[in-house]
Specification:
Length: about 240
Amino acid sequence: MAGITNAEFLNKVIPYGFDVVTLGGYSLDEKTIEASQKIIERGRKEFHFELDKIIPHIESEANQIKKTHPNVRVSANVRSINPEPIIEVSKIKNLDIIELNCHCRQKEITSIGCGQEMLKRPDLAEFISQIVDGAKSEVSVKIRANVEGINTLDVAKIIEDAGADYIHLDAMNPNVFDADWKLLENVCKNTDIKVIGNNSIDSIDKVKKMYQCGVYGFSIARAIISGTLNFNISNF
């Protein structure tokens, strides 16, 4: 998530023109919570809540955003080795989108088969379908492009066929500080799902380039991690 994205931070950045914001990422079961604790112990910022406290926390965070910005849609990015906790979070009243994290590359998360390792699960389609069938919100799946051994377009089609509403695609181009524009365009042209483009958005020109690839929307992370943005997307 490029950092800690909580209600306090998101309420501060919404005025730059965002109409959807994402809380998280959150770990929802014992294994992912344990992994989060290990990440913290080696000095990286990470959300960490006990199993019985995580859903009330997300609910409180979503409520804080809706209270201040009632027209902004709220998403929560979550990790779990099973779909059931994700379905439970989707039932939060002020949560509009539940987002399955198939994106994190921290070793503690990938070593338990979560994050980007989810893309290698033979039952990925079934996993997503269970969430779609049980969720009370829309469903997004965030993935990282160009993961070794994974065909990004094939995964995008699996996510689409499983019934998700969105693919949140970090169009990471290994060893290049720029998005993989060709891959992003290829996914947009060869699927009908709503694609949210992400990676290296630091100007209106980059936003325009994203839309030229065919995305439904775009997301910004690192360019706003300080809590400020040097361009305004309100009138885009």
